[in-house]
Structure formats: C-alpha cells, structure tokens
Amino acid sequence: MTGTARSIWKGVIRFGGISVPVKLFSAVQDNRVHFRLLHEPDLTPVEQRMVDPRTGKTVPTEEIRRGLEVETGEIVMVTPEELEELVPDASRDIEVTRYVPRGRINSQWYDRPYYLGPDGGGEDYHALAAALAGEHREGIVHWTMRKKRYVGSLHGEDGRLKLVTLRFADEVVDAEAIPRPEGRAFEPLELRMAEQLINALAGDFNPAEYHDEYRQRVLELIQVKAAGNVFKFEKPKQRRPKIASLADTLEQSLSQVEKRKSA
C-alpha cells in the first residue's frame, strides 16, 4: 500500500471501565486485475440487468423482492423494512469479553485482518498494545460496523494493536467431519529423513519472496499488447513422476536441497 492509509472506521475499545479510542485500517488490499466487459464490435461497456428467464424481459428494480426457499419447498418473502428491523443498533464500542492465551485460536477461525491506530492521545493505546504483547494474550471482542455484528481477536504486536475478524461457529468445519488419512505405518528411517528435510528447509518467512505470478503475467500481457507487440506464452515443462519408495524420494529431495544451499 503506497501513501498514507486512510481509516475506514472509528471505534472505542472498552473493558473494565477503560476506554481506548481507535481508528480502523484495512491490513490487506485487493490487487486483482479487474477487466471491463465490452461489446467487441464497438468496445462499448456492457451492463448487467435482472431478466425474467421465462419472458426475457428486464425486471424493474421496484418489482424485485427477496425470498428464501425453506425445507417444505415454500418460498418465504421478506421486505426491505423487515430486514432493516433486524440490523443491529449502531455503536462505536469494541467490547472486550475476555482475554485468552495467544495462539489458543486455531487458524481456521481467522478471517480478515485490520490495523488499529490511536484516535487522539495514544497513551492508553500503547499501554494496551504492550500489555497484550507482554502477557501473550489476545482479547475476544464484539462490535458493530456498517450494520453488521462482528466477533474478533485483538492483540498487540510491534507496538501496534491488531484486530482480526473471526468466523462464527457455524462457518467452521469440524476437523472430525473430515475422514482421517489412512496408510501404512512409516519406517523410522523415513521419519528421520523427513525430519532432516524439514530442518534443511528451515528459515525465516520473507513475504517479499512470494508474488501472485498469474497477476504479474496478466499485467505483462497487457503491457506487451499495449506496445503493439506479440506476447510469448511459455509454459514450464511438466516431468512425469517416477514411482519410487518414500525413503528414495526423501533422499533425492534432501540431496537437491543441499545442492541448492551450497550453490
């Protein structure tokens, strides 16, 4: 993200009689390539319309309603006014309900990350960030933003407060619902070689090493065509895997890693 980021919402962290005003900043951004849909003969942008599939005619906006099919097959209609009544009351409060040990929440519960910045004086903000980091805890919080109720994880890191929205219980699939992998028991030699391979690849995580290669290729394609040139499409050659024992495969992988490290 370039330039100065703009806050997208303001709130107040509240717990035990303490209030910490904060600003909310998105910690991720959409870098996808967004194409325009055009009519090929004259490159006029096309538009989407709601159409009755039986008549092919466009349905006016004022005639469109929302409905949901229930188990009996009946479609239950709801009005915009009814849905508006269900919207939670507007609030700026970020309520901390409890503090749990850091790392207690499994990764499948995490959804979207945000940065929190101080809104005004930052003494309480920095004290909370330092306390959370020092105690190795994260707060479970609730708040309402843009007519929607959220639950999230609040933690301190590098002198900042960070907030991650959490998925609700009915959104996360229980691991016990997934069949456990079956197979033969591994040999002690295979375990030792696998551990050696893991240690050989051990290192720090450097985000700058990883890029959306497809997006980069799409942008290269656009730039080449914009310059009036022909883009060369090159696909890596795929090697047909040879069937070998796990021990042989691990040994070959370990040898390749050691060669790359010594190169």
Please describe what this structure looks like:
The chain has 263 residues and is an alpha+beta fold. The protein is built from 5 helices and 11 strands, in the order ββββββαββαβββααα. The protein has a 7-stranded mixed beta barrel with strand order 1-2-8-11-10-9-7. A two-stranded antiparallel sheet has the order 3-4. Strands 5-6 form a two-stranded antiparallel ribbon. Belongs to the prokaryotic Ku family. It comes from Desulfonatronum thiosulfatophilum.
Residues in β-strands, percent: 25-35%
CATH class of the domain at 7-29 and 88-171: Mainly Beta
SS summary, helix count: 5
What is the architecture of the domain at 7-29 and 88-171 at the second tier of CATH? Answer: Beta Barrel
What is the radius of gyration computed over CA atoms, rounded to a whole number of angstroms?
A: 27 Å
Structural category: alpha+beta
The total count of strands amounts to 11
The percent range for helix content is 10-25%
Which SSEs are present, and which pair or pack?
Layout: E1 9-15, E2 18-26, E3 38-39, E4 44-45, E5 66-69, E6 75-78, H1 80-86, E7 93-101, E8 110-118, H2 123-135, E9 137-145, E10 148-157, E11 160-166, H3 188-200, H4 213-226, H5 246-262
Parallel strand pairs: 1-7
Antiparallel strand pairs: 1-2, 2-8, 3-4, 5-6, 7-9, 8-11, 9-10, 10-11
Helix pairs in contact: 3-5
